[in-house]
């Protein structure tokens, strides 16, 4: 079952998309990476970090484990769902709960952290695609998003909340917020540029794969070490994404 449509709404939710055997192939690798990450990053974890990134360049994963991740990332099942032309693989992330469960979540657009001016952000979101494929390993409270804001700039209220203006806080409720609860086997595709927030709890662990347009302005953020440099590209389906 699919709800939403990335092109029109900025997200699509695919209930029961993954088969158990697809998840159980990648899960031990994700958990291994996460355990090393916690060990090596306890300081930033205790300060509030709630995600890690760049699994495919990790020194803690071996070649065989990376091959399994790259096979998954470039699989027809996933790539066929991308609703724009010539997609490129950008990176991977794991999302987990903050150490302090009272830590507030925050509405944001990922593009607000890229260093470009707001005038440019308003322009760029009209055409740019940067999408998360969120793959929860456990039932989680999910992601709340504002449909269509992948192409449409904020209302006054949204802008004030996202930027903590006029006594508003970044975790204040927003009228148009749509909460998508997630379970293991579900897939949520959503635009990184849209207004969204993660809802913490349930000891969540989600694997996010990020794809984007074949555009130098975005690809300058791509770290070549995350690409399958140890492999022959012809080993992969859809190798053009790399
Ligand atoms: O799950 C989260 O905590 C937030 C997710 C998010 O903001 C993102 O993917 O950019």
If you had to describe this structure to a student in words, what would you say it looks like?
This protein is α+β, with helices and mostly antiparallel strands and 242 residues long. It has one domain (2-241): Jelly Rolls. Helices cover 26% and strands 23% of the residues. The chain is built from eight helices and ten strands. The chain has helices at residues 6-9, 20-40, 42-46, 63-73, 76-79, 118-124, 156-162, 216-219; strands at 2-5, 11-14, 51-53, 88-96, 130-136, 140-145, 178-182, 187-191, 196-199, 205-212. The strands form two sheets. A seven-stranded antiparallel beta sheet has the order 1-2-8-5-10-4-3. Helix 2 (20-40) crosses helix 4 (63-73). The longest helix is centred in the N-terminal third of the chain and has 21 residues, at 20-40. The two termini are 29 Å apart. The mean pLDDT is 97. 2-oxoglutaric acid binds at residues 50, 95, 110, 132, 192, 196, 198, 208. GO terms for molecular function: dioxygenase activity. Keywords: Dioxygenase, Oxidoreductase. This is Phytanoyl-CoA dioxygenase.
Question: Briefly, what is this?
Answer:
Helices cover 26% and strands 23% of the residues. By secondary structure, it is α+β, with helices and mostly antiparallel strands. It has one domain: q2cbj1_9rhob like domain (Jelly Rolls, Sandwich), CATH 2.60.120.620.
Write the layout of secondary structure elements.
Layout: E1 2-5, H1 6-9, E2 11-14, H2 20-40, H3 42-46, E3 51-53, H4 63-73, H5 76-79, E4 88-96, H6 118-124, E5 130-136, E6 140-145, H7 156-162, E7 178-182, E8 187-191, E9 196-199, E10 205-212, H8 216-219
The structure holds 2-oxoglutaric acid.
The site of 2-oxoglutaric acid has 8 residues, from strand 9.
């Amino acid at each position: 079952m699919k709800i939403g449509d990335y092109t029109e709404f900025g997200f699509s939710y695919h209930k029961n998309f993954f088969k158990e055997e697809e998840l159980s192939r990648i899960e031990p690798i994700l958990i291994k990476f996460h355990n090393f990450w916690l060990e090596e990053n306890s300081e930033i974890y205790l300060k509030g970090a709630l995600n890690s990134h760049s699994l495919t360049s990790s020194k803690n994963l071996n070649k065989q484990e990376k091959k399994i991740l790259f096979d998954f990332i470039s699989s027809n099942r996933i790539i066929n769902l991308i609703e724009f032309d010539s997609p490129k693989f950008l990176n991977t992330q794991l999302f987990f709960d903050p150490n302090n469960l009272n830590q507030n979540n925050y509405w944001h657009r990922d593009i607000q952290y890229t260093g470009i001016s707001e005038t440019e952000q308003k322009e760029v979101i009209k055409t740019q695609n940067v999408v998360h494929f969120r793959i929860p390993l456990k039932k989680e409270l999910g992601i709340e998003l504002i449909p269509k804001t992948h192409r449409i700039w904020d209302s006054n209220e949204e802008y004030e909340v996202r930027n903590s203006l006029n006594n508003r806080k970044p975790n204040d409720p927003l009228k148009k917020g749509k909460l998508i609860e997630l379970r293991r086997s579900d897939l949520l595709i959503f635009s990184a540029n849209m207004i969204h927030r993660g809802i913490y709890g349930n000891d969540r662990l989600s694997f996010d794969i990020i794809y984007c347009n074949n555009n130098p302005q975005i690809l300058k953020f791509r770290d070549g070490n995350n690409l399958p440099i140890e492999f022959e590209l012809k080993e992969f389906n859809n190798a053009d994404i790399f």
